[in-house]
Structure formats: C-alpha cells, structure tokens
Amino acid sequence: MIESATTLHERTKHAPGEEDIEEIHLELITNVKRAILTTESQQYELVSKVGEGSFGEVWLAREVSSKKSVAVKLLTLVSREFLNTLRSEWQILTTCQKLTDGVVRILDSNFESTPQFYVMEYCSRGSLAKYLDRLTLKQAVKIISEVAKTLSILHDHDIYHLDLKPNNILISKSGKPKLADFGLLSICLKRGLTLTLTPRYAAPELFKEIRISYAADVYSLGLILAESLGIPPGKAREGYVAKAKHLPYRLRSLIQRMLDSNPEKIPRADEVADELKNILYEIKEKKSPDDLSILLLTLEEEYRNIIKKLNKGPLTMADLKRAKMIYLKAKSLLDKVSGRKVL
Prior knowledge:
Blueprint: E1 2-3, H1 5-14, H2 21-32, E2 36-38, E3 43-52, E4 57-63, E5 69-75, H3 83-99, E6 106-110, E7 116-121, H4 137-155, E8 169-171, E9 177-179, H5 184-191, E10 195-196, H6 214-228, H7 233-237, H8 249-258, H9 269-285, H10 289-312, H11 317-338
Parallel strand pairs: 1-10
Antiparallel strand pairs: 2-3, 3-4, 4-5, 5-7, 6-7, 8-9
Helix pairs in contact: 4-6, 4-9, 8-9, 10-11
C-alpha cells in the first residue's frame, strides 16, 4: 500500500497506541546536535543539516580522524517496524556500489546506536533539483544519459529505485550524477509495509497493485528529463512534450516513449542511455540557430571591413583570399540554417 506524504503523516501521528514519531524525532535530534557519532572504526562530528526525508535527516559531517566531509543519514523519523527496512536499504546500497559508481557510496554505519545512522559519501554539489532551471540542453541530456546508464546496470540485477526524483539524484564534486535513497519502495511493497510516495514523479502503475519493473524508473526519469528541459511533470504527463518544437525531434520522441501509459511499451534503461548518447553527439556536432546567427554577424562585420579597404584603394592578395573565405563560411552557415543549398 502506498500513501501520499500528508496521509502517511496524519495516520502515523494520530494512530492510537503508537509512539508519537515527531516527539521522538525532536528528542533524538536534541541529543545528537553538535555530537560525535561513533562506529566500530570511526568517529563523526555533525556539522549541519543538508536534507530531510520520510525516515530522518541527512547531515553534513566530518570524519574526526581525517577531517574529510561525509554525509550522515540519521534514522529518526521511523517507527520500529521500519528499522529492518532501512537496514535493507543500506544493504542494497552496498550491493549497488559494487556494480556501478553511479550510486552514492556507503562508508560506515551503526545500527546499534540511538539514533541509528549510516555514513555516505558527501556529494558537494547537492541534488539535481537545484540545477533544473539552469541546465543547457547538452547538460540535461548528458546528466540523464548517465543516470539511465546507472539504472540499466542495476535493472540487470533486478534492483529498482522506484522513487526517482531530482532530490534523489546527487551531483558529486566532479559533476557525476549519483543515485541515493535506493530501493526502499520495492522492499516495503514486498513486506506489505506502507511507504511515502512522491506523486509528482511516480509512474502511474505505482498507484495500483501492478507488478514492479524497470518501466517505473524509466517513466520517472522521463519526467525528470522533461522538467530539466523546461516542461513541468504535470504538462509532460499530458503530452505537452510533443508540442515543444524548440527541442530536437529525436529527443521529443524518446521522452514520449519513456512516458507511455503502457509500461510494456516503455524502453529499457539501456535503450534510453544509448539513444541519449546519440542525441548528445548530434547536439555537439550541430550548432544551434542562435550560435549560427552570431557567427554570421561576425562574418558580416569582417566583410564590411574589406569593403572599407576596397573604397580606399586596391585590395591585396591577402584581402581577396580573406573575402573568398568569408563567402564560403557564410554560404556553409546559411546552408545549415535554411536546410538547403545556397548558391
């Protein structure tokens, strides 16, 4: 069973006979602020909170011995029934990082402390969410292509994310996108537990009792790709992508396939990664109309300078060669803009 965040919060908060999770949360956070968290091999000093989720908070911390920055996930907003589920998430993440470097690495953990926590690599550039409104076409395609490649590797091992959203795609210091909060939904569904879902990015079948497959991840990734190109998820679901003529046709076509209402028609993640790689190559090879216009204006200015020289007297051989080069460059650019040969 899956509920919205609001419904789950109200059910958990007011259910008779259950612990008040918010109260536990406040008490634990009061105890751990400015504290040193300890595992069998290391100590970590909390620095500042950097994120919040259904099961707790993510903090920036420092490894005491090396002063290296890490991320610590405090498992505070959970009832006891979820503790085993969260341990399973840790196990999934440790498995995933052996398969690909496109998943946030697990470094350490302590499931015997209060609160329980685990330590992850710190992705200093934050999540994709903070960059959605400032990505170029090339950047958006490149990032989503890398995420699709990571998903394809994990899907081959029957590991599904099922809660893909910009906040779960973290950007490392080197600029590589990495997946976080992996596999919780699938674990909970298998155990009959209730889990918060992000409706904005969730595939339609996740609201129904349908077999879980790669299609849910690819659908969510299609919404994220559309949003990174300026099309909100709601509009993308309604078929607005087909009307986005400012995007390359091949890219529009791929996004539409990723958002097909029939999960069986949705392409696999490896197909998406390959197609995005080809689209990225085309984008790099083909200059946009705006870029071409700027080049044409530059050539026009050079041509005017040659005309000025001609008015003052005979042109040198170098001037004539320059004039011919300008003509050939301008002709080539006009061919690209118009899509036909210019005489």
